[in-house]
Design goal:
Number of domains: 3
Structural class: alpha/beta
Shape: elongated
Distance between the termini: 75 Å
Number of strands: 23
Largest sheet: 9 strands, mixed
Radius of gyration: 35 Å
Strand order of the largest sheet: 11-10-9-12-13-14-19-23-22
Length: 659
C-alpha cells in the first residue's frame, strides 16, 4: 500500500514538474510579474496615504517588500500563470488569476498574524493587503488584456510584398505541418496569418509566425481583421455541410475557401499552387461528401508487402475503376502490372499515361475479352499473375435492364469462369469488385453481381486461391455515372433530370475506392467478402446542388425535373444483408462480412440455368436471373424456376481446367 502511494506521489510530482518546468517565456513573464507586484505593493501604500508615501510607512515598506514580491512570485508560478502566453488570455486565465491573488492574500494575512512571534516583525497594514490584492488583479489582468489586444487588434500579422495572407483550418500536427510548409513555398506565395481549430486546447499556441486564433466559426471575422484573402482547409479536416457552411460564410465577405492536399510534385497542373508536395485547389464535389476521404500511406503495412514484387493482372483496366487501381498499385512497388481490357483506345491511353510516370514497374497491356475463356487461359499461362483484380463489368443499370444477356455473360458467367481458371493456374489472390445493388437486388445488374458474389463465396471455400469480393456504392465521376452528366447539363444551362426527389445513394471517390479495394485484398486470412465504409447516403438532389455550388452555378439557375424511378431502381440502396455477420478489420473503412454460403454445386446449377436461359431470349434470361436472386435473398433452399429446367446438384465447372 505504501509503495503504491509512493509511486502515485512520484508520478504526480513528475507530471507537476513537467508542467512547471522553467522556459524562456515563463522566466520573462515571472520577471514582469515581479515588476508589477512591486508597483502594486507601493501603490497600495500610496493610496492608503491619500496619494502620498508617508515617511512613517517607509520602515514597513523596506522590511516587507522583498518578502511580499517573492511570496507572490512563488504562488503565481506554482499556479501556472507564467506558462501560458498572455496574448492568448481568456476567461479561464482570469479565474486562475483570481485564485492565485487570493491565495497570496491569505498567506500574507497569516504572515501578519503568526509573524508577531518573530523578533523585529513589522506587520503589514490590513488595508494595504486588500488594496494590493485588488491592484494585483487589475495590474496583471490589465497587462494580459493589453497583450491580447496588441496581438489581435493593433498589430495583426500582415503579408509582405506579393504574399497572400491566408488562414489555415486545422491546428493538429498535420495542420501545423501544412501551415509551416505553406510559408516555405518558393516565391513567398503564402503568408499564414493564423490557424483555426475547434479544439480549445490549441488556442493561443504559436506555429511559426502565426498562432491558433480560435474556432472555425471565427474564420470570417479573423479573415477581415487580418486581411486574409483565402481560408485554406487541410484535406479531411472539414467536409460535407460544415465545409459548405464555411464557404458560404467566407464568400459573403469575398474570401475564398481552398483545400490543401499532399501530392507528388509531378501531379501538379497549371491550376494548382504547388510546393513541397502541397496542392492548393478549390472546393470540389468530393470534399462535400458526408465523411473524410480515406488515404493509404505508400508504406501501408498490409498493401505494400501484398503487392511488392508481385505480378498483378487487372481486368477492365481501361475503365475508370480499373485504371485507377493500376495507378494506385504503382505506389506499392509491384514487379509487373498486366493491364487487360477489350477497348483498344482505353488500353492504349492507360499504357501511355502510366509509362510516362513510371520507370521501375513493367507494364504489359493485353487486348482481351474476359468472356473468352480460351484467351484468358492463355493470358494466365503466359503471365502467371500472383494477384488478379477483376474490375471488368457492365454497371449501367438502365442499360443492363434492356440487355440482360450481356449482363449475365459479362458480370456473372465471365466472373465464375475467370475464378475457376485462376484457381487452376495457382493464382494467389483473386479480387472481384461488387456493388451495393447486389443486396436485395431489384435490377438485372445487381442480380448479376449477386450471383457472382455467391459463386465466389461457395467456390472459394475449398479452393487454393483466396477469393475476395469487395462491395461498395457509387463512385464519383466514374464512366457511365450520373455526375458527369449533371456537370454537362449544368455547364450548358440545361434542366437536371432526376428520378425522384428522395432517391439516395452511397458515394465515394475513385482513388479512395481503388485504394480500399487493394487494402481489402491485402488483409490477412482466407478469402472473404468486404464492404467499404461509405458514410451516410446522399440525396441525389443534394449532390446536384453541391455540384452546382462547386461549379459556381447560381442556385436560381438550377432547374430540376423529376421523371420517376426507372425499371430496376430503388429509392435507397443497402450495403448489408440481414443474415450477414459483420466483423471489424484493422482499417475502420473496411468491414468483413460473412453470409451462410450456398453449396457450390447449387450455385453451379444457377450458372447452368443462366446459360440455358440466355440461349432462349432476353426476357427468359432476365426472369431466371431475378428468380435466382429473389430465392437467394429470401433464404430459400433453391430458387424457383420456370421456363428453363433446373440443373441437377452435380453441375460441371464452366471451364475445363488446364492440362
Amino acid at each position: 500500500m505504501i509503495s503504491k502511494v509512493t509511486t502515485a506521489a512520484a508520478a504526480w510530482l513528475s507530471a507537476r514538474w513537467k508542467s512547471l518546468r522553467p522556459t524562456r517565456e515563463s522566466l520573462v513573464v515571472l520577471a514582469l510579474l515581479a515588476v508589477i507586484f512591486e508597483a502594486t505593493y507601493l501603490g497600495a501604500f500610496f493610496v492608503r496615504g491619500e496619494l502620498l508615501l508617508k515617511p512613517s510607512d517607509s520602515r514597513a515598506i523596506l522590511n516587507t517588500i522583498l518578502f511580499v514580491v517573492a511570496l507572490k512570485m512563488c504562488v503565481f508560478y506554482s499556479r501556472g500563470l507564467c506558462h501560458r502566453p498572455w496574448r492568448a488570455a481568456r476567461f479561464a486565465d482570469l479565474n486562475k488569476l483570481l485564485r492565485a491573488a487570493t491565495v497570496a492574500l491569505l498567506l500574507l494575512v497569516a504572515f501578519n498574524y503568526f509573524g508577531g512571534f518573530l523578533p523585529g516583525h513589522v506587520p503589514i497594514p490590513r488595508s494595504v493587503l486588500l488594496l494590493d490584492w485588488a491592484f494585483t488583479l487589475l495590474g496583471v489582468g490589465g497587462m494580459q488584456a493589453v497583450a491580447r489586444s496588441v496581438y489581435e487588434e493593433l498589430m495583426p500579422a500582415t503579408a509582405m510584398g506579393n504574399e497572400r495572407a491566408v488562414l489555415v483550418v486545422d491546428a493538429s500536427d498535420a495542420g501545423r505541418e501544412l501551415a509551416l510548409d505553406l510559408g516555405r513555398i518558393a516565391g513567398g506565395k503564402f503568408f499564414v496569418a493564423g490557424l483555426l481549430d475547434d479544439d480549445p486546447a490549441h488556442y493561443g499556441q504559436q506555429v511559426g509566425r502565426a498562432r491558433v486564433l480560435g474556432p472555425v466559426a471565427m474564420a470570417p471575422a479573423c479573415a477581415e481583421r487580418l486581411r486574409a484573402a483565402e481560408v485554406v482547409v487541410r484535406e479531411g479536416a472539414l467536409f460535407g455541410t460544415r465545409l459548405r457552411a464555411l464557404h458560404d460564410a467566407c464568400a459573403a465577405i469575398g474570401v475564398r475557401v481552398c483545400i490543401a492536399e499532399r501530392s507528388p510534385p509531378e501531379a501538379a497542373g497549371s491550376d494548382w499552387a504547388t510546393g513541397r508536395r502541397i496542392r492548393v485547389r478549390g472546393v470540389g464535389l468530393r470534399d462535400l461528401l458526408s465523411r473524410a476521404q480515406a488515404h493509404l500511406d505508400d508504406r501501408d503495412s498490409h498493401v505494400l508487402p501484398f503487392l511488392r514484387g508481385k505480378t498483378v493482372l487487372v481486368t477492365g483496366a481501361g475503365g475508370s475503376i480499373g485504371s485507377e487501381i493500376c495507378r494506385q498499385a504503382l505506389r506499392f512497388q509491384p514487379g509487373r502490372i498486366v493491364m487487360l481490357d477489350r477497348s483498344e483506345p482505353a488500353l492504349f491511353a492507360l499504357h501511355r499515361e502510366l509509362s510516362a510516370r513510371n520507370g521501375a514497374v513493367t507494364l504489359q497491356p493485353v487486348l482481351c475479352d474476359v468472356t473468352n475463356p480460351d484467351r484468358i487461359d492463355r493470358v494466365l499461362t503466359e503471365h502467371k499473375p500472383h494477384i488478379v483484380i477483376h474490375a471488368a463489368a457492365y454497371k449501367h443499370l438502365p442499360l443492363m435492364e434492356s440487355h440482360p444477356v450481356e449482363a449475365i455473360e459479362n458480370n456473372t458467367l465471365a466472373t465464375a469462369a475467370l475464378a475457376e481458371l485462376c484457381d487452376a493456374h495457382g493464382v494467389g489472390t483473386f479480387i472481384a469488385l461488387s456493388t451495393d445493388k447486389a443486396v436485395h437486388p431489384s435490377s438485372v445488374m445487381g442480380a448479376s453481381k449477386l450471383v457472382a458474389e455467391r459463386f465466389l463465396q461457395s467456390f472459394g471455400a475449398n479452393a487454393a486461391t483466396r477469393f475476395v469480393a469487395v462491395r461498395f456504392g457509387n463512385v464519383l465521376g466514374s464512366s457511365g455515372s450520373a455526375v458527369p452528366i449533371f456537370e454537362e447539363q449544368l455547364s450548358r444551362g440545361l434542366p437536371i433530370t432526376i428520378t425522384h426527389p428522395e432517391v439516395r445513394r452511397y458515394f465515394m471517390t475513385i482513388d479512395e475506392a481503388a485504394q480500399l479495394v487493394l487494402l481489402a485484398g491485402a488483409l490477412p486470412g482466407r478469402g472473404a467478402t468486404y464492404v467499404l465504409e461509405m458514410g451516410e447516403p446522399l440525396r441525389i438532389v443534394d449532390v446536384v446542388q453541391n455540384l452546382a455550388f462547386v461549379m459556381n452555378v447560381p442556385a436560381e439557375r438550377v432547374t430540376i425535373n423529376f421523371c420517376g424511378l426507372r425499371p430496376g431502381e430503388k429509392l435507397d440502396e443497402e450495403l448489408f444483408f440481414e443474415d450477414e455477420h459483420r466483423e471489424a478489420t484493422p482499417n475502420a473503412l473496411v468491414v468483413r462480412v460473412e453470409r451462410p454460403a450456398r453449396p457450390v454445386d447449387e450455385v453451379r446449377g444457377w450458372l447452368a440455368d443462366l446459360k440455358d436461359a440466355i440461349a432462349v431470349d432476353a426476357d427468359t434470361a432476365a426472369r431466371v436471373l431475378m428468380e435466382i436472386a429473389a430465392g437467394d435473398s429470401a433464404g430459400r433452399e433453391g430458387p424457383p424456376h420456370g421456363g428453363v429446367s433446373p440443373r441437377s446438384a452435380a453441375s460441371p465447372p464452366l471451364v475445363e481446367p488446364p492440362a
